[in-house]
Amino acid sequence: MAFLSDRMARIKPSPTIAMTTRAAELRAEGRDIISLSAGEPDFDTPANIREAAKSAIDAGQTRYTAVDGTASLKQAICAKFQRENGLDYDPAQITVGTGGKQILFNALMATLDEGDEVIIPAPYWVSYPDMVLLAGGTPVIVECSLEQGFRLTPEALEAAITPRTKWLILNSPSNPSGAAYDRDQMKALTDILMRHPDIWILSDDIYEHLVFDDFRFVTPAQVEPALKDRVLTMNGVSKAYAMTGWRIGYGAAPTPLIKAMAKLQSQSTSNPCSISQYAAEAALTGPQDYIHDSRAVFQRRRDLVVAGLNDCRGIDCPTPQGAFYVYPSIKDLIGKTSAGGTTITDDEAFANALLTETGVAVVFGAAFGLSPHFRISYATSDAQLSDAIARIQSFCKGCS
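Above: the chain sequence. Below: its structure as tokens.
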């Protein structure tokens, strides 16, 4: 009898974490490493949020809370959805978890049976397919090419739907591509879903506030109110307020789903950290100028990275609408040999050679379901980004 369960063979370790770990190991060995693999803002959490956490500690708010969030945080989340998205929810339709990842995991575990299908546009965040597999479902991957702007088309969505389809996962703006759906593009998808009343939509809005130029963010339940009763809208404080380590995510959905997710959470992690919940409440109800300021920094960094990568021989880097990633193509480098003697057979070989020969850590595109690409996170300083781009340019120039 095997000790580990069969379900463990369905999934793989996170490639993004693996690359970040490898970069840290090389740095510990004394190598000059620039890691562009982690999706984490390099800013400090705003002062008012930190102060709220300290006040919560001093006030003794260090005990268990309700399993899926305090009443006051749920009220703040309801107010956020109404204020920013025009969506009306009551606290019974809100759940709070230990990061956005737990919200997604709980929803899939609470709803999927063996053979249920989940449509996932690629490129996708690395955890989506593995969560589906752990829950016993079947990921249905729909490739969305650079030529399509890395966005799911209505025709491709319609073609992917079967009688076993239970969920569509949408992430806008996207990790890893930064692609986002405007109102017309989102409406074209919701029109298809209106014709399929058994399909639910899991909308991952974690990068909502990181959109650039004149782009206007929209979420499915906002664009098509008739779908609201089968949408789970997930969000969190990690990206918008530089609170990755605080581990607070939240979701809004019809009450029966929220209750099922709370039941699951009650038998797994129970409540999120009490102190983090009070900090998240301060983030949602306090001054919002931090978002505007950080967005401007990220847009400047995006422009720096896009321009620099497009000056690299063999790289084609589109300009993303949001998040803090770029997802360039290396199609024209496949088959070439690096100056260090590595044949670039695919994007994983490219990423490994780049790390070994230049000390720049990126994540290869196959990890996100669409090759030949790689992902750069530009959530680091301008100086680090400029240095990294110069190294990548040198690496590409040396390929022949």
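The CA atoms of residues 189 and 298 lie 28 Å apart.
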